[in-house]
Amino acid sequence: MNNIFVYCEIEGTTIADVSLELLTKGRKLANELGCQLEAIVAGNNLKDVEKQVLPYGVDRVHIFDEPRLFPYTSLPHTSILVNLFKEEKPQICLMGATVIGRDLGPRVSSALKSGLTADCTQLEIGSHEDKKAGVTYENLLFQIRPAFGGNIVATIVNPEHRPQMATVREGVMKKEILDENYKGEVIRHDVTKYVPEADYVVNVIDRHIEKAKHNLKGSPIVIAGGYGMGSKEGFDKLFELAKELHAEVGGSRAAVDAGFCDHDRQIGQTGVTVHPKLYIACGISGQIQHISGMQDAGIIISVNNDPNAPINTIADYVINGKVEEVVPKLIKYYKKNSK
Amino acid sequence: MSLKIVVLAKQVPDTRNVGKDAMNADGTINRAALPAIFNPEDLNALEQALRLKDTHPGSTVTILTMGPGRAAEIIREGLYRGADNGYLLTDRAFAGADTLATSYAIATAIKRINNCDIIIGGRQAIDGDTAQVGPQVAEKLGLSQITYTEEIISVDEATRRITAKRHIDGGVEIVEGPLPIVLTVNGSAAECRPRNAKLVQKYKRALGSQEKAAITKEGAELPYADLYEKRPYLNIAEWSVADVCGDIQECGLSGSPTKVKKIENIIFQAKENKTLTSSDDEMEGLIVELLANHTIG
User: Fold this and answer.
1) Nearest chain A alpha carbon to B132
2) pTM for the whole thing?
3) CATH code at position B123
4) How does B26-41 read in b/e, with b if 16+ C-beta sit within 10 Å?
5) Residue B23 with chain A: CB contacts under 8 Å
6) Would you say residue A278 lies in a domain?
7) How far does the CA of residue B275 sit from the closest CA of chain A (Å)?
8) What domain range is A279 assigned to?
């Protein structure tokens, strides 16, 4: 009772990275609160699936195995969470801010009338004083997220309603195995007790999942372009530099909106979060929504002809110059000096 | 047979092009510096609705929005592009609503509109980026949902089934489900058609009652006042909590489980940095330095 639950997303029979990241975070929060960590896995053919989650410090894993639970559809997965939560009364529920998590989370929160905060970048435990009511709430989940296009950071709490629900994007939290041999309880539920037959009304009739075209999230060197690249042709220069440096290319929201690069390369609060050892920002002014997706980079180089670009304040190297001059020079001198 | 379609649309501050003057010195938002626009993905949703109207003659498209009196602008923009009518949900009791209280208000309004076949909105609004209202409205109405829709492929009125393409993580999915249904539309869907000049002529004087009141507040006469009696379609309908038979406890701040504890302007810890020019010497020097410390290989 009153534990932390993580909904584990699944592709085929593999648990998504974002869910493992949340289990890692959930374990830390559970230790702080002195409660247990529980995982929910719903899909098809889930023999041995517990082996993927228990090492993250999961005390109980709830498995719902039924052919119609994969691919994901909204209603059956909602019923699983809603009915399980009515029994288990979790204090916190976390899920990935993915297409699935953002389809499922709101539906569950609406059914349970519990609050949900989308796309959190930090989760902390703390106390909250409601001065008007004269009540202090201990051990609440602080759900911290950028808001208003990333221009402010808001801390959200749900004082009265349970579970406190939050979604988090992939790559924001770090995944870390606690103990390969962690012992947790495995519960295989009778799906028919949780999901009424009428829930299977939406059918997935075709599905194409392509392997990601790039490894932006895991690349040690990231070169990112912004609106300052001027054009798609200008932006394409970054791919030449990336080829030399064995780097991946990303873009700011403004570059994506302008059509300079594909949407799946967007770095920032509403895109991918990256943690490379080197980040080269070209023609990026540095809106907060962008910076929140790359500020943990080891070394940051900013190339900008505006010496007052906000991104320069967090950069290790600031190159005051035009990107169209700087990028070819970087290519040229890299070729000359690397062996 | 025809379809009754409701488009959920929101007027939002344009957070995409935030300049340096968008934040006040005290960390609050300078709303005056941000123009109010039609939420971009709601326009994608409107286009999908209008396409259904084109292919299913006799269908109606209704714009439903929530906000202050000036949000009637969203309904006019919808009418200019081919919507048939619209409702503005507006009440002080709605103020301070989180997504759950917002969904409650919208769901009660959809019940009042009654017998809807398709409820369609953008995936998310650019001021909150939560993507919660669509699925929550669906849950409150007890309907199924298709989120992240890229295209409605077909609606079969005989079997009352809809088929749509979704844009999911790493791919696409074709799904089919029953009417009535709630859809949310992704920004990768077809762009909305432009305003139609004839419709702009027809609806340009359409006003909500709060807009009319704002014009006549200082004792001014409402221009073309007689038109609003002769042409009822120029009166944009406004609904309060009472009009949609909502429970006031479920609305606004009191209906919101989430509370904002703290808002902070973001200040990043400034680092000491090395400033370079784009000269050949300095560029080569940088590359040599990065190679020497194995930052690049």
Assistant:
1) A106
2) 0.87
3) 3.40.50.620
4) eeebeeeebeebbbbb
5) 151-152
6) yes
7) 5
8) 221-337
